[in-house]
Design goal:
The protein is of the alpha/beta class. The chain contains eight helices and nine strands. The strands form two sheets. The protein has a six-stranded mixed sheet with strand order 3-2-1-4-5-6, sandwiched between helices. The relative contact order is 0.18.
């Protein structure tokens, strides 16, 4: 992994539009760490302030729409971006504003859509209007959409019970407009976790031994941001997905054990190697 990171030297800029996690394991905090670990540079537009820890979310304060737009505008007017990644978008107005911004200010940039709907703890993080807007407006703009199994079921419809269900959901998401879909297998069963990537290149099934652990807080945010960080640096989609997955796998295996619930992973393990 360390050798891979020396292949491309320029630091790709990633604009992350997502919520803040006071516990530091998910959301903007995880996004920044993952992008930095991939050698990129993270800028942010915060959509919500949450009070949460490894046990759950106790409060959510949405950021006013004009402030979300102002954050995105400030970054794009000055620093610019090589890729965009979205996480928790809270409500329909924010989703629509993000879609407009991507269409008007960042057409053609790699866009990783992490359809954050429910936290690992089970807390709902998206209202119904926002869910529909993600399906109708953001999905067709996505270079890659990265749902876990429950999110893929909600976006594509139908129950996913096995690898064939993951493949079918990924294909359905592409039919809905996404250029590529990564349906993750972390919520599946068995000793092997399987992620399904469907893109213009065809289908890839990525298998890794399942790690039995409660320390999985923020894994979706971390993976999507790591992928965006690599795309921003010029890596191919397939390589970005594989290398980001390898990074996350090691981060899970090295989880520091913080908290009494779903603890965070070790985002910065590569820095210490």
């Amino acid at each position: 992994m360390a050798e891979m990171m020396t292949e491309i030297e320029h630091a790709g800029r990633v604009l992350v539009i997502a919520g803040s996690d006071s516990g530091g394991g998910a959301g903007i905090q995880a996004d920044i760490k993952a992008i930095a670990a991939m050698g990129g540079y993270a800028t942010t537009a915060i959509t919500a302030i949450t009070a949460q820890n490894t046990l759950g979310v106790t409060a959510v304060h949405p950021v006013p729409l004009d402030i979300v737009i102002a954050q995105m505008t400030a970054v794009l007017d000055d620093i610019g971006t090589d890729a965009i990644k979205t996480g928790m978008l809270v409500n329909e107005a924010i989703v629509l504003a993000v879609a407009d911004m991507i269409e008007q200010r960042a057409p053609g940039r790699p866009f990783v859509l992490d359809p954050v709907m429910v936290a690992t703890s089970g807390d709902v993080l998206l209202d119904e209007g926002a869910e529909a807007a993600i399906r109708d407006r953001l999905l067709p703009l996505a270079t890659l959409v990265t749902p876990n199994i429950p999110e893929a079921e909600r976006l594509a419809g139908g129950k996913i019970e096995d690898i064939d269900g993951q493949i079918g959901a990924a294909e359905a998401l592409i039919e809905m407009g996404a250029r590529a879909a990564l349906v993750k297998g972390g919520h599946g069963s068995g000793s092997v976790a399987r992620d399904v990537l469907v893109s213009a290149r065809g289908m890839e099934i990525i298998e890794r031994p399942r790690i039995e652990t409660r320390h999985t807080h923020g894994t979706g945010c971390t993976l999507a941001s790591a992928i965006a960080g690599l795309l921003a640096r010029g890596y191919s989609l397939s390589d970005s997905v594989k290398h980001a997955g390898d990074y996350l796998y090691e981060a899970i295996s090295r989880a520091p054990g913080f908290g009494a619930g779903h603890g965070p992973v070790d985002h910065m393990w590569m820095i210490r190697e």
